[in-house]
Write the C-alpha cells for this entry.
Amino acid sequence: MQHLSGRPLRRARSQARPIRRVSWPSLGPVIGAAVVILLIANVLAVGNPALADLLIATPAPAMSEFRVLSPAEGATVGDGDLVMVEGIAVDRSDGAVDRVEVAVDDETSWQPAQFDASDRTRWSFLWQGAQAGGHQVHARVFGLETRPLEVSVNVNVTDAVSGPYVIDNPYAASGRYFKGEIHVHSTSSFDGWNSYPPAQLALTYKSFGYNWMIITDHDVISYPKEVNDDSFITIPGYESTADSGHITGAFVQDLVPNTLSAQQRIDGILRGGGMAFVNHPSWTIGWNGTDLQRLNGYSGIEIYNKMTGDTPARVQQNLALWHQALNAKGWPNHVYGIAVDDAHMPADMNYAWVEAKAPALSQDAIRRSLESGSFYFSNGPSFDVLGVMNGAISASSADASSIRFIDQDMKVVGESKGGGATYRPMGVERFVRVEAVMADGRTAWSQPFWLTPNAPKAALAPTFAGAAVVGETLPRARIDVADNGEYLGNTTASDDGVFVFRRNSLAHGPHNLWVQATAPWPDQVTSAPTLLTYIETPSS
C-alpha cells in the first residue's frame, strides 16, 4: 500500500453544524449608487477621456526588479573560460532602466552589460577569462526608480571537463589585448633609406594606436627604449638575414652570425634568451616546402607579410605551410602564426599586427603571451570574443561579415554569416582555428585550439566469460588498460568513441584498473588515467 502522507488515517466523524442566518441589507441603494457612478464616468469620458481612464480600475503596476538569473548563487560553472552572466532589470515606472554594469571580484572595474534587442528588461554580460576558483559577480543598475542598486552572486569556476576531449584554449588566461608589430625596418637597415630612424619609427607606430613593437633591422639590434612609457614599449630585436632564410630574433641582447645555418641561427637566438620567428616562408629567398617541418625551436611563422605576402594566393600558400608544420610537429611543439608589416617605408606601415593578451603592458607579459599563443593576428578586423564556452569554441567580431572554423586539413568545418559563432568539435579534429573575415577579405586569424584526450569515461561490466572495461573517449583513440601495475593490453575506440576491452577472468581480490586514452595522431598525446577499483570475490 502506498501512503501519500505520513499522518495516520483517522475515521471521519459526522457532526451537524447549526445553521447561521445572515441578514443582508437591501440591494436597492447599492444598485442605485453603481448606476450613478457609471453615468458620471460616461459623461466625463466624453469631455475628458484621461479622467475617465482614472475612474476605470487598472491593474496595479508591477514591482521593480533587478537580479542575476544565471549563474545562480553558489553555482559551479566550467568547460571554458567564457561565462555568460544573465539577468533581469525592470523599472515599475516605465519598464526600462538606463544601464546595467557588471564587475567580477574587483568592484572598481565595471563593464557595461548588453540589453536583449527584443526584450530590454533582459540583460547579459560575457565574462571573459574566467579562472578556476571562487568568484563574486557583482551587477548594478542605474535608472531603477532613480536609485542605483547592486546585487551579487557567488560562483565557483572549475577547470574540470566533462567531455571526451580537452580543448587546449590559448586564450584562457585573463587580461586585455595589446596591439603590437613584430617585423618592421628603420633607417638602420641597409634597405631602409625611405623609413624613419628607430625612435621616430617607434613614435609613428605609437601614433597608430600600437602598444608595443619590435624593430627588426637587418642584423642590427634597434632598441629605442627612450620612447617607452606606460602606454607603449619597444622590445629589442633584429632580422637575421641570409640566403638560407630570414629569421626574426626577438627579446635579444646579441646578434647571431648570419653565416650560420638556419637551425644554428635559431639555436643561437634561443641560447641568448630570445624568441625566433620564421619570416615570409613563401618568398623566393630561403625556405622550401619541408624546412618548416624540419626546423626546431622557432615560435611562429609569418602568415601575412605586407611586403612579400599580401595577396590571397600567397596567404593561402603560407597557411598551407603552417598547417604542414603543425601536423608534422603536433601539439607538444607549438608553432604560432603572425601577421607583420615588414615595412621599409611609411606607405607600408600599419597594415598587419598582432594582438597579445596580457594582464599588463610589459616585456615579460608580452613575451609570456607570445610563448603561450595567447594572441591573434590580423590585417583588418578585431576579435571581440575568442575562447571556449560550455565546451564550444566561441568567437565574435563586430568588424567581420563571417566567422570560419577550420580543422587540421584546412577544411572549413563551420561557418556563420555575421559577427559571432560557436563551434563544438566532433572529436575527430586534431585542432581547430578561427578566422574572422571582413567583406573585403581582410582577416583576423586565431591560433589553433588543439584537442587532447580527456580521461576516459569507463566502467567495469560483467560478461559471461569474465569482465569488460567499457566506456567513451575520442573517436579511434587507443585505450590501454593496466591492473595493479600489470599491463593487460589495449583496444581501439570506434568512430563514435565507444570502446570495449574484454578480460576473460580476474584473480580473486582487489583490483586497481587504470584506463588511459592516446589520441590517434602521430604525436601520441595521452590522457590522464581513469581508475576503476574492483574486488573480485569467489561469487562474483
Observations:
- Confidence is low (pLDDT under 50) at residues 1-27, 30-41, 54-58.
